[in-house]
Structures are given as C-alpha cells and as structure tokens.
C-alpha cells in the first residue's frame, strides 16, 4: 500500500514537473543558432550600408569585404558552411563600387540595388516555378517549415525584393546628384538623399518585414530535428 502511494506521488510529481517546465511561447522568434546564422548572413550588408552612409562607397566596400570575411570564418567554424548572401552581395557591390570609383559617377552604386534586387526577385520566382526553392536550400538547416511554408516564405521575399527595386529606382531618378534638396531641415545632394533613404527607411523596414514574416511563419513551423 505504501509502495503504491509512493509510486502515485512520484507520478504526480513528474506530471507537475512536466507542467512547470513546459516552454513558454517566446516573443523573440529565433533561438541562439538561428540568431548567429542571421547575423552572419545579413550583418555584413548592414555594416556596408551604415559605413557607406558615414564615410562613402570606398570605405563601405572595404567594410563589406572585411565583415564578410569574418562572417565566412565564423560560419565555417560554427556551421561548416559559408554565408550565401554576403558572398553574392559583396561580389556585385565590388563590381559596381569599382565602376563608381573609376567613373566618379555614383549612378553605378545606386543602380546596383535596382539591378541586384530585380534579378534576385526574378531568380526566386523562377526557382519556385522550377520547383527549386532557393531559400529552403540556404536556410533549411536553420528554419524548419512545411513545403507550403517555404513556398510562401520565398514568394513574400521575392515580392519584397521587386518592390524595393522599384522604390530604389524611383528615389534614384527623382533626386539627382547635381541638385540639392532640403530634407529634414538640411541641404542634401541627391546621392545623400538616396543614402538617407537606404539607411533610415530601407534597412529598418527590411528588418521589420523579415521579423514580421518570420513570426507569421510560425504556423508552418515543424519540430526541430533531434540529433543523437
């Protein structure tokens, strides 16, 4: 009788422990591994934009190269794979940055965003049409979604890339380098207006968009695989 009582009490205690240790729903959607992955993927791009706004395209390009190298080393050490986006973006930025330096025409580095985002958006849509999901290939070890979830995730970013390409081209064509504009009480050249647009609008909106989409994608999330 005493043995049965002790067994029942132990079972009740175990149940209570399971209830108390049940993980609560987190407001922040990423775990430590996912956070490191995202920082390694997008950190160099953010660094390039900020440094470019403060010191110009020359220093901004070097900042992108250095932080990309650091991201590559970190990713290879932690996850045994290089960061995809910084590698692609750095190659494109170096080419258009070199054209800007050679020709002294900022049009090249400005139009780079239009060309890159348009091509990347079309690339994502084409991959979906051919049943090859690029984002699933890149982020498949970090995020675990259903097939429907991956398709919606990729579609949303393809549309976002195309939208930012159109917005970038609108700002580039509206604010000319040889003219000055009064923005927020300051006289700015067209290039500085474009830089302000990239740093103060595009970057925070992109971060907010990625955060919102990731939150909405939780309903398509699969359990993390268990590694022995």
UniProtKB/TrEMBL annotation:
Q: How does it sit in the membrane?
A: Multi-pass membrane protein
Q: Which UniProt keywords apply?
A: Cell inner membrane, Cell membrane, Membrane, Transmembrane, Transmembrane helix
Q: Which GO terms describe its cellular component?
A: plasma membrane
Per the UniProt record, which residue ranges are transmembrane?
61-79, 84-102, 108-130, 150-171, 191-212
- Top-level lineage group: Bacteria
* Localization per Swiss-Prot or TrEMBL: Cell inner membrane
Q: Which InterPro entries match?
A: YciB
The record's Pfam families line, in alphabetical order, gives: IspA
The entry sums up its family as follows: Belongs to the YciB family.
Q: What does this protein do?
A: Plays a role in cell envelope biogenesis, maintenance of cell envelope integrity and membrane homeostasis.
Write the protein's name.
Inner membrane-spanning protein YciB
Q: Can you name the source organism?
A: Hyphomicrobium denitrificans 1NES1
